[in-house]
Amino acid sequence: MASGTPIANPRVLIDPYEDWAESEPVPVIEGYGVDLLDAETRPWPRYGMDGAIIHLKARADFTTLFLYKIPGGGSSAPLKHLYEQLVYVLEGHGSTQIEQPDGTMRTFEWGPKSLFALPLNARYRLFNGSGDTPAVLACCNYLPLVYNLFMSEDLIFNCENGFPERLGPDGYFEGEGQEYTLDRGPTLWETNFVADMAGFELKPQDDRGPGSTSIQFLLGNGVMKAHCSAMPVGTYKKAHRHGPDFFIFNVTGSGYSLMWYPEDEEMVRIDWRHGVVFAPPDMMYHQHFNTSPEWARYLAMNLGNRRFPFTGERKKQAAALGVSVKDGGRQIEYEDQDPRIHKIYLDELAKHGAPCHMSKFMDEQMLLDKMAATAEA
Questions:
Q1: Residue 244: pLDDT band with limits 50, 70, 90
Q2: What per-residue confidence (pLDDT) applies to 249?
Q3: Engineered SS bond to 229: which of 6, 214, 223, 334, CB 3.0-4.6 Å?
Q4: Is residue 291 a contact partner of residue 255, using CB atoms and an 8 Å limit?
Q5: Residue 84 CA to chain centroid, in angstroms?
Q6: Are 217 and 194 in contact (CB under 8 A)?
Q7: How far is CA 150 from the centre of its chain?
């Protein structure tokens, strides 16, 4: 028979990472989307920079987003941590110094729209190369996963174990890499550093929308992933859905994204431009639209890649990529989409004075007829 005195209001349903985030002296910013260039930051002694924690509504259990702001002529504290981190440079020029297991240093320089990986538990430091303007960095990592698993700040930030295999060849920090092609799906590029996401060559991937281009990055020989996709002028992607924890950044051009569940009458809309980040919630359909007079390009970061999917959901996602819901996939073809979607797009193009080129890729008249029938009903 059980014995002992019952405890009133025991501590249950604890999230150690969220407790840690709330205890840090920086803002915790929430929303479907956030303009990182307009977000509040405060001094973050742990990292030696100003910063903020970004908790998007679609954030799930494994990843989070940090915002760092390094003052002109400043630098971060010397850092290392038991989580991988992908860094996208929003503004500024600077350099990163990474210590190798033998004590020697690797240094590389970065600028606006650079992407790089901070390998697992490697000691590093970030430097702002400008004397008078701040450098602003968006950093995706899986601290929630390791914090909720180990519940030890000391282990995460002071572990002495090295992971030299995560550093990769010397050239990977200079922008060199290895390209891989798959039987289906996007081309892969393995590296640690991309100097300019706006200019990096993408490869055709018509199954996500005719004319679209894309590439996936394997970074730091780790489990984090980034991919970059682009849409031609006057076009938009096909709607699809997947699991949570995808952080999406605008790189070039401008436009918007719509997000909805099948039972929703209204759609969530996110307007994007440089500096905006958003995340589609778990298995919520979403669709991206270019309204600018140039190609629109976006960058997405998440946990789980083609080499190391990490979860069964990521394996399912890879198998369903570009496959119609009619064939068991997760993508809605243009002819099956809600007719309101095309009308919204035409109205937005009219506001921006941009042409629509969707008739090259789809039966636009059929959608116009559906729009008319919906309006009459």
A1: confident
A2: 98
A3: 214
A4: yes
A5: 14
A6: yes
A7: 25
Residues with Cβ within 8 Å of residue 210, at least 6 apart in sequence: 235, 360, 361, 362
Does one domain contain both 192 and 321? yes
> Which candidate, 86, 74, 118, 115, places its Cα nearest to that of 99?
118
Domain assignment present for residue 2? The answer is: no
Strands 239-240 and 203-204: unpaired
Out of 125, 152, 170, pick the residue that ends a domain: 170
Give the pLDDT of residue 375: 65
Q: In this prediction, what percent of the chain has a pLDDT beyond 90?
A: 79
Question: CATH number for the domain including 232?
Answer: 2.60.120.10
Spatial strand order of the sheet with 94-99 comes to: 105-110, 94-99, 124-128
Segment holding 373, helix H or strand E: helix 364-376
Q: What end-to-end distance do the CA atoms of the chain give, in Å?
A: 68
Residue 377 is assigned to a structural domain of this protein: no
Split into its structural domains, the chain has a count of 2
Name the amino acid, one letter, at 126: L
Which residues does residue 241 pair with via DSSP β-bridges, in sequence order? none
The residues, any chain, with a CB within 8 Å of residue 206's CB and separated by 6 or more, are: 212
Residue 100: pLDDT band (50, 70, 90) is confident
Instruction: Give domain status of residue 352, yes or no.
Output: no
Among 91, 365, 309, 345, CA closest to 233: 345
- Residues written for the chain: 377
Stated pTM of the model:
0.94
157 and 27 in a single domain? The answer is: yes
The model's confidence at residue 376, banded by pLDDT at 50, 70 and 90, is low
What tokens were used for 287?
């669709």
Query: Which domain, by its residues, includes 245?
Result: 177-336
